Amino acid sequence: MTSPTEELFGSGSATGRLMARLDWAATPLGPVQSWPQSLRAAVRIVLSSRYPMLLLWGEQFTQLYNDAYSALIGDKHPGALGDDVRTTLAEGWDVLAPLIHDAMATGVASWVPALQLLLDRSGYREEAYFSVSHAPARDDDGRTVGVFTVCSEVTEQVVGERRLGLLRDLSVRGDGRTVDVTSTCARLVEAIGGHRLDVPFAAIYLREGSALHRVACTGDGPVAAVLPDVVVDGDPAWGLWAAGGGATTEVHGVAQWMTLPAGAFDEPVATAVALPLPSAEADQPLGVLVAGVSPSRALDEAYRSFFHLLAQQVAVAMRNARAYEEERRRAEALAELDRVKTSFFTNVSHEFRTPLTLMLGPLTDALADERHPLPPEQRERVDTARRNATRLLTLVNSLLTFSSLEAGRARSRAQQVDLPELTAELAGVFRSAVERAGLRLEVDCPPLPRPVALDPANWERIVTNLLSNALKHTFVGRISVGLHAHPTELRLTVADTGMGIAEEEMPRLFERFHRVDGARSRSHEGTGIGLALVGELARLEGGDVRVDSRLGRGSTFTVALPWSALHRGTDDTVAASDLGDTARAVAQEASGWLADPVRPESAEEGSPGTLPDDGRGVRILVADDNADMRAYLARLLTAQGWRVDTVGNGRQALDAIRRDPPDLVLTDVMMPEVDGFALVRTLRGQPDTRALPVVVLSARAGADAAVEGLDLGADDYVVKPFTAADLVARVRATLEGARRRLRTPDAEDGRPEPPRSTRPISAAPSPAPPATGPVEASSAGAAMDSTPSLTGTAEATPAGAATGSSPSLTDTAEAGAAADPAAAAARTMDGAMSDVAPAVPGQPVAGPRRAAAPAGAPTTVQVPNGHGTASVVDTGWSYPSEATSASAMRRDVRTSLEALHVHPDVVQDLLLAASEAFNNAVEHAQQPTRPEVRVQLQVGAGTARLTVRDFGTWRDRRSAMDRGRGATLMNAFGDVRLMSTASGTTVTIERRLTDDQG
């Protein structure tokens, strides 16, 4: 039979079984048999609940609770059963007592969320949080004799939210956007210092070289006193060095070094952790975070995880701060560069104005001088100079304005102005150019309802730049200018039916120096600041600029000025007629974009332009998008007796060449639609124009630009500015080189042989002529390495040459056996072409002391073998020692190599190396005994050898290998050797061919 005790506590729970075995008679409640029904009922309620419940009964607050509650009090269970709660929870009674007494006194239940209690349930005084309810418990008579306590622990939630708050504060304090790394560290520890319940103290160490340096810590008291300032290799203090290597370290016994009350109940800190601050390299942390552990919380997995998150957050802030510092340094460097550039532009622009004034003044005076009028031809030249000086002044003024805007020095000098009249006048300046372009100009500027004031000079630049931009990019339709009043603002609109702007280009449209790649335009000229200047000036006047555009449909630019920005300044009204100089200069420049597709310029009667053996007058096609440059080049070339056609871009040039091929093309590089390089590429890619001579003009100086042009197949590359004599000489040299090729036996049909022809240069080998006879072309046959050295021939022949005899093969071989190839080539060329004055053009080179060949004329050296026949390709040329001869040399060498099926890449490499060697010979040979440069080409046995020989003393006698960029360029394309003697310098370049060549 079940006893009353077993019946009451027989719920099957562990706590119920403990309560059943307890001697209740020894407690204030007495034996179970004496308990009132109300107490028995209350016990059954507590034991049957799965929620933590505590029943306090009687004046001694005797405790009865269930399994769920036992887990909350930890080590106090099971001793708390039947004991006074004031004893069990003595450390927290001060907090609980008011709640319990209130429930018993009032009979009203209470609810307290997240109540903080101090609990000693795990061997230390612990900070804990509970959501708790206290309700009265009544006896059989209805009197309140106890309290029902229902509670749940929320410690993890409360502490977790608090720790998240610290991480949030760190993200705000450590954003790194406004401070440097050191300041960021100080802000981080300051944020940590506001959360001492979780992190009693903290310090940050950063790696500097091989040491860790403390850069910040919470407070200046005991923490700063005990933490080391610097930690070096192997220092065990605080586990900092180990953490600096990537290992998290726990530091115990902190209370031995400092007394720092902390935690929920101000107890001394006993433990700390040292954590690495992770970086991109796992074994190289940024530094170390030292953090104190709260004495009120156990260092469990959750706490450790929080510290790792804390270290990661600090590391992120550090990386952000460093990135910001780097970005700020870059921004400061860029700002300094920008400031220097602006200052440079300002200074240079001001410096330009003085010489421009001294140019424009006399030029204008000369044109206006009625007492001493200029002849028509001189007037045209002076007018060209004046127009371009005016254009340069406009550019200088734009740069000055832009630099002032960037530097913040620009000011708007507002004046009363009749804005509709001024706008219409400025638009009218462009009418002639617009109508010449076949477009309509529509102007709609009705009177305004109120007077306005702004800077008229700024307005002139705005209108002028927008109209110039519209004319440059509009080819059919119209350009419209409108000025209209709106309720809140005044709007200027410039609309066109031009090419439109791609959507992806719109965000950068008003950036300085930005150009839309591939946009069709009438000219490539300009600085790229026009629209940027419009935007800056509009903002200076208090407004802004907007654009609406569709690709292929046109664009509309709108400058909007609020009325509030237009009521300022003086009462002085500026007349429209007082302005317009800038607009007239820009409109005049724009007129130069409107060239006729092909414009012929005839040579003067009787001028000596036709070259010998030509049979017809030379015709040159000039392609340039600048009208003044076209006119200047046409005058320059027609003065030489050449007929000249002019076009405005590469596409027009291609059309003109297809209709009637000229004798030479002179083209600019920067042109709209098809530029100069694309023109050369197209001509060289078509069989019927492959041999057409092309000279490229460009403002792009430097070897890279020249190499690019020559690499595409241009015959010469002329950098602006150039002298008239230099340009004429280089054009003439290119024409003469083309004519020499026209006269070669290969040109049977009377047309120049295309440079990329695959037909061999020479015929079959022929018997060797007498030494005194004319020099004939050698033929390709035996391998070069299997024949006697050219050095041997030259060494053995001086005496023989005088008597007309020929050296034996044995003498030749012996003489050449120990010869240096570079010296051999020099002596060979000396033997092949003696120091007698040049022969008459067209005459054979003969005699024991042969004359040097005319410029570019081929000469050959005979190499006897056992059969008495020439056995290697061995061709040479002689050129005047002038830079203009380089193009003829390149053409001759290219023709010879391509006729032997030499691979195009090898041809190009040899041409670039030969050009550098030739230019060095012209530049460095001082006081030459012969005003010529000789070039020799030998091809055989899988090798091509080029030898360049001059007859002067070099100003720089160091090895070519040490001479810098030119030598580096030559060495990149072949094996280079240099031999300097008293009589001159010889450069030999050897290049291996592919297996199926030579």
TrEMBL record:
Residue positions of the PTM 4-aspartylphosphate?
Answer: D668
Q: Which residues form the signal peptide?
A: none
A GO CC term attached to the entry: plasma membrane
Histidine kinase domain spans which residues? Answer: 347-565
**Ranges of residues in domain Response regulatory:** 619-735
Location of the protein in the cell: Cell membrane
* Known EC number: 2.7.13.3
What is the superkingdom listed in this entry's lineage? Bacteria
Q: Which reaction does it catalyse?
A: ATP + protein L-histidine = ADP + protein N-phospho-L-histidine
The record's listing under CDD domains reads:
HATPase_RsbW-like, HisKA, REC_OmpR
Q: What is this protein called?
A: histidine kinase
What species was this sequence derived from?
Answer: Micromonospora palomenae
